[in-house]
Amino acid sequence: MGGMPTTSTDRELPARTLVAQCLAIASAAAAVIHFAVTGSHFQEYWVFGVFMLAAGWLQLTWAILVIVRASRAVLCAGAVISANIIAIYICTRTVGDMVGPSPTEIEPVGFGDLLCTVLEALVLIGCFWLVWTRQHRTVRRSQVLATTTVAGSVTAVLLSVALVAGGPEMVMASGSAGHQPARATHMRMPAAGKAPVRLATGTPGGAISMPDPHMQMAPGMAMASSAACAARPTAAQQRAAVALVDASWRGARRFQSLTAAKTAGYRPITPSGLPVVHYLNVSYYLDSALRGHVLDPAKPQSLVYANTPKGAVLVAAMYITSPGGATPQPGGCLTQWHVHTNLCLSRGFGVVGVVTAAHPSCPPGSRNRVTPPMMHIWFVPIPGGPTAIDASDAQIVRAAERVRAHGNGPA
Questions:
Q1: pTM summary value
Q2: In sequence order, what are the residues at sequence separation of 6 or more whose Cβ sits closer than 8 angstroms to the Cβ of residue 230?
Q3: What is the rounded distance in angstroms from the CA atom of residue 240 to the CA atom of residue 40?
Q4: 302 has which bridge partners?
Q5: Cα–Cα distance between 67 and 48 in angstroms, integer?
Q6: Which of 115, 148, 165 is the last residue of a domain?
Q7: What's the structural domain count of the chain?
Q8: Together in a domain, 66 and 181
């Protein structure tokens, strides 16, 4: 049986070809991870962004070259690229960034960056093996196809998880992490039109209005888009904004019961007992990121509760997109997204501090990151209405005290 001839459709290929193709898959996947985080790293410091972009292009180019011709020079180049990136990764996780706004800050380890490093280590080991091995084994073409298919599929699954694993590291206003809120600043946004916009909704939040150019935003908040949104919403956009608010209320009103929210999987990501507490449903977040449907009123990624003398009150649903994900604005300038730039995020999904002039560094084990874009839909009558960009904790609590409580304990 072992002497059966190999058919022309299943001829044998060098085992080196199989190894090279698997290394190309690993290098390409590492490149995708680097490309995915380039934008957020540019926001932190331009050198970080340039490094991520350069690393991604080097890894992608090498993946193509090693498939075309796995020469000794190409393999040595792959080993050098991977070794240097791994060395920099180890340095940032043990010593610090060395450069940038926080050169001594030690980076936390996350699933995505750890997967990227494992892939780079596989490339490094594989290149050394191909350079130094003297074996000339062969494998059947069908085995090459089967192995690369399995390797590619497994890598694709892990890569999909990595691309959304860091997404839920977010939460809201600066007072929410246990620090006293700093003096609020005004959001610089031009008025969207001379005629006022006031759209009735079926929620306790009241009527929708255009974002106020004097709307107060806490330090460390910014609009997700650098271009000011000043266009008056069309009739279709106005209808879409009302529909989104009403649908969000229908989908979230069952979570007026804090017990129901916890049963559905919502967990606090800011310290409990604060005036305003944010809850996150990791399952809903990952599901929306994978489906690309961020505005799902039935499964809002986050809920916001205010602690009042009569118990916790549901004050908002909050939609959160994945890093680099879509930020749909069905209501035009009535439905805008914002980010936070001053939060200290833990390795999990929590906010453990806020970067301020008095506290310029994050606590150990956390890092100051720019959050993914997010959008509130308010269910209590805060200034600006249901689609207001944000409000202070005091405004939120006062608004929550004006609606009916539902027998909750503190959030």
A1: 0.56
A2: 189, 190, 191, 192, 333
A3: 30
A4: 280, 318
A5: 29
A6: 165
A7: 2
A8: no
